[in-house]
TrEMBL record:
GO biological process per UniProt: cell division; SRP-dependent cotranslational protein targeting to membrane
Organism expressing this protein natively: Paracoccus halophilus
Family: Belongs to the GTP-binding SRP family. FtsY subfamily.
Subunit and interaction comment: Part of the signal recognition particle protein translocation system, which is composed of SRP and FtsY. SRP is a ribonucleoprotein composed of Ffh and a 4.5S RNA molecule.
Reactions it catalyzes: GTP + H2O = GDP + phosphate + H(+)
Taxonomic placement: Bacteria, Pseudomonadati, Pseudomonadota, Alphaproteobacteria, Rhodobacterales
Descriptive protein name: Signal recognition particle receptor FtsY
GO MF annotations in UniProt: GTP binding; GTPase activity; signal recognition particle binding
């Protein structure tokens, strides 16, 4: 489904109203709160979160006349408060290799994100191995090889259609033999057959645990921010398929209204390890709660 046009900076200015002479103010009453709620819902924040954020802003302030900049400040504070606990980089463990399983629907940006992460870890002096675990999509494997070359990281592949778990096992063996710091395993994202995918992911986990009972150390779910509220149901689905430990949100450079991140943080509390802000190798940023909150309110 097409994403509606984004609510860009200015929405709160419109709510309060604009006048050339002085900074306009509007009384904080029920009608205004309702409009604010509606705006937050339109911005993908989800009904529950929008209601709570609005209630928090209203508390102790009903009847007061506030300006757009005051309202922006209050809203940014509320959003930052929800986002701060989840703004956490991917934790690195002394464990070698640290195994990072990467899951998500096709097209969400898994391959790209793995390439970007590999490049960042390489730059930090880590030895990285990638396993192209989506063995059913030849194009995905080729794409990952291209990213591996860009990042200067070896990509282990297996013949098309072969068992991803056996590739994961071989990759684990190689990563251990080479003393690699990190092993990132790409996985299939076919949600059409959930049972299959669940079994496939479970088998990958089972075989890598034969090598290291504590693996995988992270299970990253990659989500496309332009899918709006769908991101919420994807989290729900993937949490049933795998032990998701954190999120990467891609395509925040585009038309995505980042509001869905607030809904995600509020509902699931899963760490947001990074955000994708473009198609190039350096277009992966740490998630900063304050910057994000300020940008979102405009
Ligand atoms: P996968 O199927 O999950 O592996 O998805 P890909 O990594 O192949 O990405 C799907 C498409 O999204 C590609 O065209 C990527 O260039 C694009 N993409 C991935 N991440 C981002 C991002 O952060 N911003 C933008 N604008 N595009 C992205």
């Amino acid at each position: 489904p097409a994403t509606p046009a984004p609510e860009r900076p200015g929405m709160l200015d419109r709510l309060i109203g604009r006048r050339a002479d002085a900074e306009p103010r509007r009384e904080l009453d029920d009608a205004m709160l309702e409009e604010l709620e509606e705006m937050l819902i339109q911005a993908d924040m989800g009904v529950e979160t929008a209601l709570r954020v609005t209630a928090n802003i209203a508390e102790g302030r009903m009847g007061r006349r506030i300006s757009a900049s005051e309202l922006k400040g209050l809203l940014a504070d509320e959003i930052a408060r929800i986002m701060e606990p989840v703004a956490r980089p991917l934790p690195l463990y002394p464990k070698r290799p640290q195994v990072v399983l990467v899951v998500g629907v096709n097209g969400s940006g898994k391959t790209t994100t793995i390439g970007k992460l590999a490049s960042q870890f390489r730059a930090a002096g880590k030895n990285v191995v990638i396993a192209a675990g989506d063995t059913f999509r030849a194009a995905a494997v080729e794409q990952l090889q291209v990213w591996g070359q860009r990042a200067g990281v070896p990509v282990m592949t297996a013949p098309e259609g072969s068992d991803p778990a056996s590739l994961a096992f071989d990759a684990m063996t190689r990563a251990e033999a080479e003393g690699a710091d990190l092993l990132m395993i790409d996985t299939a994202g076919r949600l059409q057959n959930r049972q299959d995918l669940m079994e496939e992911l479970a088998k990958i986990v089972r075989v890598i645990r034969k090598k290291d009972a504590s693996a995988p150390h992270n299970t990253l779910l990659v989500l496309d921010a332009t899918t709006g509220q769908n991101a919420l149901s994807q989290v729900e689905t993937f949490r049933k398929l795998a032990d998701v430990s954190g999120l990467v949100m891609t395509k925040l450079d585009g038309t995505a209204r980042g509001g869905v991140l607030v809904a995600l943080a509020d509902r699931f509390g899963l760490p947001i390890h990074a955000i994708g802000v473009g198609e190039q190798i350096d277009d992966l940023d740490a998630f900063d709660a304050r910057d994000f909150a300020r940008a979102l309110v405009g």
